[in-house]
């Protein structure tokens, strides 16, 4: 039973943990780093897009604060303007990250990108 619990804990962590790339500035140089998502609910399909049978994607760029919060998100690309941006922005604001630690101090990570894909299923 204990072994099964450990496996389930590992699987749940593996399924929900995600890493995204971003950048920090160290001594005047931009360095790429990975930030770990600790909470990232899925975006709901907008009803208007569902009624129209529309699919698409939205790419959002943002920063991660020293507290792990998403800051200053904005849409950088979408293939169906007006359909999914609002849902993607509402969702990304709820995400949370493990604070990125550099030299023992939590720092802001910039230029993090996330892609939301909206696909209809049969």
CATH architecture: 2-Layer Sandwich
Whole-number mean pLDDT: 87
Specify the oligomeric state: single chain
CATH superfamily: TonB
Radius of gyration: 17 Å
Explained architecture:
- With 122 residues, the chain is an alpha+beta fold.
- It has a single domain, classed as TonB (TolA/TonB C-terminal domain, 2-Layer Sandwich), CATH 3.30.2420.10.
- The chain has 3 helices and 8 strands, in the order H-E-E-H-E-E-H-E-E-E-E.
- The strands form 3 sheets. The chain has a 3-stranded antiparallel sheet. A 3-stranded antiparallel sheet has the order 4-3-8, with helices on one face. Strands 6-7 form a two-stranded antiparallel ribbon.
- Strand 3 and strand 4 form a beta hairpin.
- The radius of gyration is 17 Å and the shape is elongated.
- The protein starts with a helix and ends with a strand.
- The N terminus is likely disordered.
